[in-house]
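Note to self: user wants both folds in one dump. Writing first protein now.
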Amino acid sequence: MTPLRIALVAEDYYPQLGGVPEHVHHLAGELERLGHRATIVTSHMRMHGHVDPPYVRRVGQSLVIYANGGVARVTVGWRLTSQLEALFRAERFDIVHVHGGLNPTLGIVAPRAAWRAGIPVVATFHTWFPRSVGLRILRKPLQRMLDRHAATIAVSNVARDAMSRYLTARWEIIPNGVDTTFFRPGLAAGESRGRSERRAPKLLWLGRIEPRNDLGTVLAAMPRILERHPAARLTVVGDGPWRSRLERAARRLRLGPSVHFAGYANGDRPAYYRSSDLYLCPTTRASFGVTLLEAMACGTPLVVSDIPAFRDLAGQAQAVFAPPGDPAAWGDAVNALIDDTARRDVMMSEGRKVAERHAWPAVAQRVLAVYRRVTG
């Protein structure tokens, strides 16, 4: 088959961490492995020593805003559509694949630039939201834009359902993937992390420190966890504008050495998962759950928020579900799972099976099939 030249457009990319940067990065790598040329198109942001690989192009300037319970990014700049059109023509792309379909800013201007250059547009929708004033007000012009897309993908049923309240399209569900060779169990055959009652149970929270990821609920649950398991230790991996506020909350709760804020991490995330007995994800809003996949790929049992996206991804055999924002329920759920070594052993093996079904080679082939269809 003829190799394709593909532009993967994303408002968020490294050094920003999150589900979209992970998705775009690994999809690009898998497409390259399959013999295609993938270029990531994103915006300029504060890099703090980060150096881009040669396949990344940046336009405009990224601004951080507060939206949908957390931080988001929009790109600003002069003549962005013209800049993108020139880039798309110069690189002679066969496909422009927008991640964050119809989102400001690149989700709007990149399709327009592609159409000017005569290039078909595929869009992937990564977000869930309870309602959207913007989509309600701008429904008609956005529907006209969506009608021009060659294909529309949602990463989950809940992401599709959120958009379907306002817009119609021929939605295809293609989930996020996980690198099952990078995220993998680190224990020898027959060794079990299920014996944590004999030592200090190690708990992990990992993500961007922002309201929708709700670290506060886990911190508030820690006194209840420590009552039953005084040696338990929580490691907080991640950074964000709310970090200092949550560190103060930990001090007010007198958690002391029971909680450690480890800061930003990227390449060493598998080691954090593998060294933990439980991964805790109290997120209140999500369309998928990339960190759940990463933890399951590493064989780490889960306690997660009882929200539709997490129910879809991790069934009852792979996770314990706790009501969002309820510290007492979270404390009880964590304590029960620490005590239930048999259930943790089952979750370790069943979770790995879920991760293997989402391995990037299989996910990328599904995306590539869409590209082949829209390019004829």
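First done. Writing the second protein, which came from a different request thread.
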Amino acid sequence: MKIFNAIAVMVFIVAVGFITHSLIKDSEKKYYATTTAEMSTIEEKLYLSGFVYPSKEIEVKSQISGVVDAVYVSVGDAVKEGDPVASVSLVPNSSEVEQLKSNVNVARINLTTAKATYERQEQLLEKKAISRVEFESTQKEYLTAQENYSTAVKQLSLRQKGKDRSNNIVRSSTYGVIIDIPVKVGSSVVERSNYNSGSTVATIAGTDLYIFKTYVPEINIGSLNIGMPVKISLLAFEHFEIPAVITKISAKGEIQGGSVKFPIEAAFALNEDSMKLRSGFSATGEILLSCVSDVLTLPEKCINFKSDTTYVYVTDSLKNKVIEKNVTLGVSDGEKVQIVEGITTEDNIITNYHD
């Protein structure tokens, strides 16, 4: 009986040892996850972030220098050509007023002299002492002196009072939407002239055409051409997309973050009943660079790189081992890559060889 118990214990110990050894050996084995190449379509797209601006922004200037005494519009208002934007009151300038007073005095003296000459010549004409031609010349000088005096008086009055609102109204020079009013009631403005750009009373943006402005890395700039379609989406509006076309590709790059990027522009139009866009909206542009259909593809994670060689790990079912196969790649969309040659749909591609 004791011998039987001893044998049973020994068999149990051997069985447990065998099972434990098998489990350890099994845990040391490498199990691979595999996939196969499949026929699919790959679109290589370029995503660019940028901003949307109206195609034209017109600055409305004042024709006279003075102080803003009324603003008739607000930001966001739609205006037409000729609509009043603001009014400006003239502010008397001491030196200018003195000059205008001097002009009035000179004009009064000239008028008095011309009147006396006219009356004298009129008497001589009645006596037929002078010709009609001489009299008409004197009459012209008298009328001109009257006009000069009247103009000098009006200029002085306008500068002193500044109440002729009909001449002081700043009007819109185009149609569009008011996007900025940099002045307030009481602000001083300077007139526009050949020597001065003048003060901006309001900025008007055209609403018929908008421009998407962004920067393209130099690695992608060679793939773009004027007229290429761009799909624009706005951060401010969900599920809003509108087609645009590239209208400008700069020939000069700019260094941003240590890399060279080139400014580009894409134009698009909006219908009158579409939402109102504000200047400076954040937007994303999607450009389709290339597209291939019905091609052999693999997930990007299956591809391995060594120097200038690309390859995948394949399980050899006959020899029960892993082998490397060189592959030639084509278009990639960041998730899938086109396999030009090297494998077929029958190959089992390892996805976790380095795990």
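Dump finished. Worth passing along: The domain at 34-42+293-350 is CATH 2.40.420.20 (conserved putative lor/sdh protein from methanococcus maripaludis s2 fold).
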